[in-house]
Design goal:
The chain contains 10 helices and no strands. With 171 residues, the protein is an all-alpha fold. It has one domain. The two termini are 19 Å apart.
């Protein structure tokens, strides 16, 4: 996997966004939720869907990760024009689940590394996904989730990033 200069610049931006998200308050959540409801309503549906499966503190941390993803992509004008749909999300999530099943079937470490490298090579927002994984490895509420729940949510968040990439960069 090749890390570009753009990836390195994005890494700094993601770090700044993580710091911003850590300081959000009720006013931010209410104002941004209103904007998201108008511009990307699927994100609200996603958050509402997670509330049934997560404890309140887990949900709070997942909301922060979704706000991180939103903050990263909201600067692109395409996010105001094209909306993520449930169909788009399900298509991308199914592809990610299929990739994981394929990964599980690989026997050698080299083959597994090749599968992961090929998948990440197609991800434009590597720094953002790294920031999401960082949050999962730093936040106590997310660390304490069982592995199956963590995996399902991470696949969903990666799928969300790829949905934004699809509408932003027209992959």
């Amino acid at each position: 996997m090749i890390i570009s200069k753009e990836d390195k610049k994005e890494c700094l931006r993601v770090t700044q966004l993580i710091k911003k998200i850590e300081l959000i308050d009720e006013k931010y959540v209410n104002e941004e939720s209103d904007i998201i409801s108008e511009k990307q309503p699927f994100l609200i549906s996603l958050i509402l869907g997670y509330r049934f499966d997560l404890k309140p503190l887990e949900l709070e941390e997942i909301m922060k990760v979704i706000f991180l993803i939103w903050e990263f992509f909201k600067k692109y004008p395409q996010t105001e024009i094209a909306k993520i749909t449930e169909t788009q999300f399900m298509r991308i999530q199914q592809r990610n689940v299929y990739m994981l099943k394929y990964f599980e079937g690989e026997q050698s470490s080299n083959s597994k590394l090749e599968v992961i490298s090929a998948d990440l090579e197609n991800l434009y927002s590597k720094s953002l996904f790294t920031g999401v994984i960082f949050q999962f490895n730093q936040k106590v509420e997310l660390l304490n989730m069982n592995n199956e729940k963590r995996g399902i949510i991470l696949v969903g968040l990666k799928s969300l990033i790829e949905c934004f990439e699809e509408i932003t960069f027209r992959k």
